[in-house]
Structures are given as structure tokens and as C-alpha cells.
Amino acid sequence: MAEQARPGPWIIGLLEAFGVERVFGIPGVHTIPLYDGLAGSRITHVTPRHEQGAGFMADAYARVSGRPGVCFVITGPGMTNIATAMGQAFAESVPMLVLSSVSERRSLGRGLGQLHELPDQQALVSGVAAFSHTLHALADLPDVLERAFAVFDGARPRPVHIEIPLDLWQETPPATRARQPSPPARTQPASAQLEAAVERLAGARRPLILAGGGAGGARASLRALAERLDAPVIMTVNGRGLLEPGHPLAVPASPSLPAVRELLAGSDAVLALGTEMGPTDYDMYEQGMPAFDGPLLRADIDPENMTRPRVAEVPLVGDAAATVDALLAGLGPDPAEHGGAARAEQARAAACAGLGQGMRQGIAFLDTLRDALPGAIVVGDSTHPIYAGNLYYAAPDHGSWFNSATGYGTLGYALPASLGASLAAPDRPVVCLVGDGGLHYTLGELAAIRDADRPIIVLVLEQRLLRRDPHRHGGRGRRARRRAALRARLRGPREGLRLRLRHGRRPRLAARRAQRGGHPPRADHRAHRRGADAGERGHVTARDLFAGKDAGRSRPARDAASACHRERRAGRCRHRAFAALRPEAGLRLPVRHLPVMYPQSAPLLADRERGSGVSGRAIARSLALSLAALPRSGWPGNGH
């Protein structure tokens, strides 16, 4: 077949006509024809090490560039691998185009056991896509692509999946050239709704604006509207940076915080722009959605959002930028004075003061990072500084702060997403902020970053909560053992004593044995014979138990020793030691093993050996000096 008569070059030409400049994918036996003609096009291909990484790269590329991220994946395993990344993009309203192969048309749904076959691939993907379309003729592809880009540009942007049956690779594409698509016009709310919104806002004395990621295209007009109304602007996680740091009306804090909820409750008119008003932003602590008595004026591209979580009194269905421009035109040029700056300042101060020490250290760390690297894009995973920043962080501009800790909430996002962000903004530094556990999910994408030769800074928060063998090396297993030991309360002469297990492999068995016997092994029998007080701390080793050294113990303790001895003889018990603590001492955990998700948890950084707290601000300052030493010029390809 001639060059343009082959399906591959023809499809690549269609993508070029729609403005696609970069695709992410892994070639496979089912998609080799799709790659035909890619080398001679203007489209650059990026090869990840896993299809999930391809989806995360496309997600971040779309967030930073404003253009849809495009992926090529194979039938079956490729689709199941990328489904997680599509779920994250679906929850966060990120445009993504996924082109995949699928079994031949005559075998669809028949369960013939074809290579990579799924019972219903389209049904699998439909739950994480705006729509999934099975192509039945190559001639239909231009129309399906136009439908996909209409969703990206004129509706709530979400992933779109198009699957191409294998037998279509043998079909001759149409002779018509790809036509230049025309972007849909920006939709504007109905005039009656706009008039009602202008009337409510003009009559308000304590107006407030909620700005989400959907208001990203209205940044300049949003600032003008806020200053015209003298209204504080609460920015959700994906809305951070819509007002720059230091703006008197900016409130870069989560609506889940009590101080921000008080600001919301005290408002007599609330304008929500491009925000889903979902629990991961508005009800992070599961205390119920924030309540306010004033009317809700909601501007959103998705009409279904007008009824959730509450019905909007004034629904404004349309593009955020077009809606804000229309509201400004209706309100007139004269600014109002409602004490908005003072209300915003009070909310900022109270929100920051209400956070725990660990969260404040995380915020200080992010502030230092922002000041050390002006213009940097911070791509985050689910880890402590990201949780802190989602609660309170003033991003320098919109699109410079995003992560996977909201919405779908997947792990392993940051590393591949940082490459997508760097490819979309090659002149800006990119910082990947990830925990050591989340890093392992997509660790292979370090090779993709090296292949692309991108100067990405990867900061890993070492928490050691996920280990290769948790029962032996700590991590979740160790925490579970210690929590189980805390629950094993004892009765009798040593009321309230708690048991700590160290280096054991069978914590549940030990906890059940302690509960069944009424006691853990008592204090070391030698200390007991010396007349040591029952409240003193003592030890009994596994060797003593196995040797039957149980003199001076109560019958339940002797029974426990005998049971452990029998387990040892059977080769099933491998406990190394037990340690009894005084009741008033409680159970002391090293700082590195405390959960770090909530404000009352451990400090951000800690000495692993001594378990002592270390100033997060001091570490961040040292980090800033190191980052400042990096060359600012020539970011692309400098190898740092």
C-alpha cells in the first residue's frame, strides 16, 4: 500500500491535524501498525516502562500544556494497566485520549481465547472515560476524534477511549485528507440566570468565591471579579495559584479546615467556580460537608454538578471564563467595599494556627522550596508534605501544584507525572515530591526520565512504612503488631499492663495467647525472686520460655510458656523476645513508625536512629541552598 493508503500514517496524520505533538505508549504486537508512519511525522513518542506510567505522564502533560495527553496501548493488559491512570484523570477532569487495539470484529464478545482478549474491553473502560468507542470502519475515525475533542474543549474534560479492531489494520483508509477541526464556542449561561446572579452578588455584604481547577482558564477575570466584589477567594487543591501568593483576598487553604468553614458559614452569597465540591476537598476529616446559609451560585460546565452536593439556587451552566466575563459586565466597574481583605486575613491566620506542628513544618518546607526555585512545578504523590500542602499552601501560579492525593487518590503518580510536566514545560524546573512507598509503584519510570534526559528533581520522603517483608523488617506489619499488643489488655494483679512484641513473626498468635492466659509472661523471674516491685520493667527472653524457666509465675503465665515451648518444638514459633512495660509508660513508638497523615501525627522529619524530632524548617533551608546551587539556565538537557 502507498504511504497514505496504510492505516498507521493516515491515523498519525489525523492526530497531527488535531494539534497532537506528543504521544505516550509502549509498542506491542497489536499496535505495530499504529506506529507505522510515526517516525516521519512531527509527533514525538515517549516510551514509559508500564502503561500506567504512560497514563500518568499524559495526565500531567495535559495539566501543564492545556492540551490533551495521548496514549497508545495494546489490547487487554495494556488497557487494564492504564485504567488506574484513567481513573485519576477522570476524577480530576483531565483530558486524555487513549487509542488502543481490540480483537477482530467477528470475535468480539465470543470468548474465543484470543491473545490479550477481554470479555468486554469497552465495558471495562467505560467507567473511567467520558465515552469509549469501538471503531467499525476507518472512515468513522475523523468524526469520533471530533467528538472526543469537543468533550475536551467544550464539556467537562475527561479521558476518551477509542479502540480499533485488529482486522481494520488491513483496511484501506479513505482518500480524503484530514480536515482542520474547529474548536467549539465557549458556552455562556442563560441570560436570566446571569441576571439573577448579578442581582444576588450586587446585594451581598459578605460575598465569597470558591475557585476550583475548572476556573483555570478564567484566572485574569477571576481576579478582577474578586476585587470588584471585595470577596475572599478560597482555592481548592486544583485551584491553587489562581490568585498569586500575597494577594489580600487569597485564601489558599482547604475548605475542610474549621477556620475556612467559619469563613464560608459567615458569607451571605457564595459563588462556586469550576469546583466539584467533593469530599476530598470539602470534607477531608469526614465531619460532613460545610454548611452555609447564603445562596449558592454555581458556575460549572457540567449541568449534573448543579445538584450535588446541594442544589444551586442560581445554576450557571457554561464555561468558567465566559461566565466570569458576563458577571463582570453586569456588575459594572465600581468596586465594592465589604472588608474582604480583613476576612481573608483572619481566615488565613486561623487556618494556619489550627494546624499541628507536623503540618506546619510540611508547609514551611514547601514555602522554602517555592522560594528557592521560582517558577517550579511541584508534582506530588500521597505523602506527608503533600497532605500538608493540600491543607494550606500558596502556589505561585495555577498549574504549578498538583498531585494524586485527592479524588481517585492513587499511589505512584508523581514520578511518571513529573516527566509529563517537564515535557510540557521544558523551560521550567520540575520537582517530584514522593514517599518511599509511592516511589516503588512506578520506580521503573526513572529509566524513562533518563531516556528523555529531563532535569527533574526527585525528592523522596523516607518513611520506611512499606518494606519487603513487613513481619520481619517493620512497616505495616510492625505497626499492626504493636497496635494488636495495645489492644491486649490484661486483668489480675497487673491491671492495665500492655505488651510490646519485638521481632516476632506471629503477632496475632501471641496476642491471642496473652488474652487467653490473662497475662503476658510476667517480669523476669530472676527480678521477681529478688523482690522487685511488680510495676518495675522486666524482661523475659524467648530462651527462658523455651527452657521452662517459669518459677514464680502464675499459672496462666506458665501455660503461656508451655504453649510457646510446644510451638517451638513443632517449628512454628519464632518469637525472639517479649518486653513488659509499666502501665503508665504506655507504648512508645519511634517517630518513623507513626502515621503522618493527620495534623496530630509525628514531625515531618526525624532522626531514624534516635527517634528525635528534627526541625523541618532547618532541613528545608539546607535543601534550598542545595537547590539554589543548581544551574538556572539551560534546564533542558543539562543532566542535573
Amount of beta strand: 5-15%
The count of DSSP E runs of length 2 or more, i.e. the number of strands, is 21
Low-confidence stretches: 470-475, 489-505, 518-554, 571-622, 624-640
Write down the overall mean pLDDT. Answer: 78
Decide which structural class fits the backbone. alpha/beta
Q: Main beta sheet: strand number and arrangement?
A: 6 strands, parallel
Give Rg in angstroms.
30 Å
Query: How would the global form be characterised?
Result: globular
How many H/I helices? 24
Q: Taking strands numbered 1, 2, ... along the chain, how are they ordered across the largest sheet?
A: 2-1-3-4-6-5
- Estimate the helix proportion, in percent: 25-40%
Task: Give the N-to-C terminal Cα separation.
Answer: 46 Å
Would you write up a description of this structure?
It is a single chain. The chain is α/β, with parallel strands linked by helices and 640 residues long. It contains 24 helices and 21 strands. Strands 2-1-3-4-6-5 form a 6-stranded parallel beta sheet, with helices on both faces. The protein has a 6-stranded parallel beta sheet with strand order 9-8-7-10-11-12, with helices on both faces. Strands 14-13-15-16 form a 4-stranded parallel beta sheet, with helices on both faces. Strand 7, helix 8 and strand 8 (233-235) form a beta-alpha-beta unit. Helix 3 (51-65) packs parallel to helix 4 (77-92), helix 3 crosses helix 15 and helix 20 packs antiparallel against helix 23. The radius of gyration is 30 Å and the shape is globular.
